[in-house]
Structure formats: structure tokens, C-alpha cells
Amino acid sequence: MRIEERQQRRGERLSELARTAAGTPMGDLLRRFWQPVAIAKHLAPGTAKPIRVFSEDLTLYRSASGNPHLVGARCAHRLTVLHTGWVDGEEIRCMYHGWTYDGTGQCTLRPAERDAARPNIKIAGYPLREYGGLIFAYLGPGDPPPFDLPRKPAFEGNGFHVVRRQVWPCNWLQLVENSLDALHVSFVHARGIEGRFVTNVSQVLPELEYFETDAGIRQVATRAADNVRVSDWTFPNNNHIVVPGPQTGGPWVDAGIWNVPIDDTHTQRMNIYAMPSQGREIDDALMAEWEDHENYTPADHHDELFYEHKYPADEHSDLTNAQDYVAQVGQGAIVDRENEILGRSDAGIAFLRKIYFRELELLREGKPAKTWRPLAESVALPTQHAAGPEHQ
Ligand code: FES
Ligand SMILES: [Fe+2]
After folding, report:
1. Is the beta carbon of 92 within 6 A of some atom in ligand 1?
2. pLDDT band, very low/low/confident/very high, at 122 (cuts 50, 70, 90)
3. CATH topology assigned to domain 38-137
4. I need a surface site. Which of 85, 124, 221, 298 has the fewest CB within 10 A?
5. Nearest CA, atom 4, ligand 1
6. Using CA positions, which residue lies closest to atom 3 of ligand 1?
7. Residue 72: is it exposed, middle or buried by C-beta count within 10 angstroms (0-12/13-18/19+)?
8. Which part of the chain is CATH 2.102.10.10?
């Protein structure tokens, strides 16, 4: 086979990992896991909103008593969008002619028709769980798996706890691959415009090691004997890292980051940031400060970042965030993997792809895929300044 042909085949194979609409192998794989789809506090009781995830349009609503529900985007009657309707108890009622649906998507009422019985009409409906300030959905077939993998003791303390959602205009896999690319920290965050990271991140290039765990991949980046970074990546699209906290010398922040496809060229980054409690007063003060950063999203500053080399003044989370954005969105809406040239430092990316291909193959053959489960013991992520931050 000619080199170009081989390269093209490789490109086609890799593009399978990027595509996530329903019916695609990767889309089907990702849907078998609980995925965060919205920020809980953005959904007020008695309201509905449209969301899009895995290229599927949906209606997210919350009953007055507080229960969230997720059903198809459109009414089955004449297909107007349901989020413009009314929440009625645990159900949602279409504003056009009043057809009503429960949280499973079952149509329960067609006011102008003569059938008193429940009509045999159903739109999509997916189970939800609220956890850590996020709403998770299970969009896969059959019964959902136990709600285990997203949970971490670090996200369940009673200290500083905030959440953030950002939409980036590129494919989800670019964001996930970056989380297994510890080398980028020495460049993206430590050269060019140097923020607070430069005091924490050594520019020394790390030696990288990757290990498959019960839950995903453990990444170890060693820059010196006292500068070993560990991150705990959870299958299929979550990373758990620690980053320096907002207070000099204070505790570090545990960050849980899920990169969830909206469609193949838009990704929502759903984040939990949590720190052990330092007393209610300090926790509250830090959370109040966070409000300045909660709504920051580099996509709002795209042209400044790309064409004016203008980065956020904040030297901490916003800068770091913007630097990552430039690197990953700069790869293109969907990176052309056919033309990439991987090196030794991309071992994590190769490792990740190998695991995805293995799991896809098992699914394709109808064989049982690996049962991913939470680690018996949480990974000892670095917490000392000397250890340097692990950053996505
Ligand atoms: S379109 Fe929804 S009730 Fe008619
Ligand atoms: Fe980064």
C-alpha cells in the first residue's frame, strides 16, 4: 500500500473517534456513560430550555418541585419545539395544541383528541442525576449504569465548590487529547505570556508515563524527583486534576473536567472546582470572588486571542483557560489527524486512542466492553507547591 493511501486510511480510522452523532460508533460508546449536560442552577424550577448534546436536540425542564427531566426537542404532533411550552407538574405541555409529555417522553394527553387513554406516542426521554452542581444524563440504551464513575470524594466536601460551563468551537476529542498531553503545560502555560503558572510550572520537559486503571488512565509526568505530576483520567471523557488555588500558599483546587460533545464541532467543557473547607467565611469569600470568573469564556474573546495576541489580565484561571483554548481551537474545528506527525511525547494520546479503538471493537463485535469502575483508592494527586500543578 502506498504511503499516501496508508495515511489516508489512518486518517479515516482516527476520524471515527471524533464523530459522535447517534449511530456513530464513538457516539454510541460515549452515550453508555453518564454525561454532564447542564449546570443545575441554570435550570430554575418550573422552567424549560433547549439543549444540544451528541448532535441531538433536547428539552431540559424542571418541575416546580425541583425534579429535572430531559425529553426530545420537539412535540410529536406538529413538531414545534417543546421548551416554549409550560411545565405542568412533572410534565411538559406543548404551547401549540397542548399535548403533554412526562419525563420519559411518553405523551400523556392530547386535549383535542377523543382518546381518553394514554396515547401510544413517545418522544425521546432520558434519565437524569444531579451531582456536584451539574445535571448528568444517560443517553444510552437500556438501563443506565450505576452513578459511580463521576463521583469523587474531592467533589463532595463542604468547602469551596463552584461549577462552570464553556462552549468551545471545536471537536470534543481535541479537548480530551489535551488532557493526556502533559507536555503542553511546559509551553502553552509557561512560555509566551507567563501567568502565575510560571511560578508553579517548571518549563523542564517532563518524562511521561501512562497506566491503564480500573477507571481510566493515570498520567505521570516527572520533571524532577520532587516534581512529579499525576492526573487521574476517567473513561471516557473526564479528567481529574489539581491546580494551584486562588490563595498563595493555600490549598489547591480539585478540578473535574468533562468534555462533552454538543455536536462534532462544538464541545461543552463542564467543570467542577472544589477545595477543602477553610471555614465558612473564607469559603464564601472565595466563592464570591469566583463570580468574576464564572462567566469568562475564551470564545467571547476569540478574535483578540487569535489575532491580537491579547490574553486576559487575570494571571490565573482565565489566562490558563484562554491559553488552552488557543492551542486546541487553533487545531481546527476537527483536527486533520491524517496529516499529524506524532512523536515520543504523544505517548498519552496514542495510549488513549488505543483504548478507544479496543472498546469500540468490543462494542462492534457485541462482546462485553470493559467494566470501568471507580478506583478503590483515590489517586494521590500532588498538593504541594513544590510538586507543581497538574493541568489539563
Ligand atoms: S405541535 Fe405540539 S400540540 Fe400541536
Ligand atoms: Fe492546559
Report:
1. no
2. very high
3. Rieske Iron-sulfur Protein (2.102.10)
4. 124
5. 97
6. 97
7. buried
8. 38-137
Ligand 2: centre distance to CA 50 (Å): 30
Which ligand 1 atom sits closest to the C-alpha of 75? 2
Exposure on the CB side of residue 104, measured as CA atoms within 13 A: 7
User: Closest by alpha carbon to 264, among 17, 36, 39?
Assistant: 17
Q: Is the pLDDT of residue 384 over 60?
A: no
Task: Kindly report the protein residue whose alpha carbon is nearest to atom 1 of ligand 1.
Answer: 78
**Could you tell me the three cell numbers for 224?**
524532577
From CA 175, how far away is CA 259, in angstroms rounded? 7
Q: Which atom of ligand 1 is nearest to the CA of 94?
A: 2
Which mutation among 71, 74, 77 tests ligand 1's pocket best, with the greatest number of atoms within 8 A of CB?
77
Between CA 266 and CA 165 the distance in angstroms is: 13
pLDDT in tens, 165-184: 999 999 999 999 999 998 89
Summarize pLDDT for 362-383 with one digit per residue, the tens: 999 998 889 999 987 766 666 5
Answer for the pair 161, 132: CB distance below 8 angstroms, yes or no. yes
What is the tens place of the pLDDT at every residue in 274-286?
Answer: 999 999 999 999 9
Ligand 1: residue of 92, 94, 101 to mutate (most ligand atoms within 8 A of CB) is 94
C-alpha to C-alpha distances, 30 to 20, 218, 262, nearest whole angstrom: 8, 20, 12
Single-letter code of the amino acid located at 362: L
Q: Is the CB of 218 under 6 A from ligand 1?
A: no
CB of residue 97 inside a 6 A radius of ligand 1:
yes
Q: What is the CATH number of domain 153-387?
A: 3.90.380
Percent of the chain, pLDDT > 70? 92
Reported as a single tens digit per residue, the pLDDT across 202-241 is: 678 889 999 999 999 999 988 888 888 888 999 999 999 8
Q: Which of 81, 83, 99, 101 should be mutated for ligand 1, with most atoms under 8 A from CB?
A: 99
Q: How far does residue 44's CA lie from ligand 1's centre (Å)?
A: 24
Domain with CATH 3.90.380 in the chain: 153-387
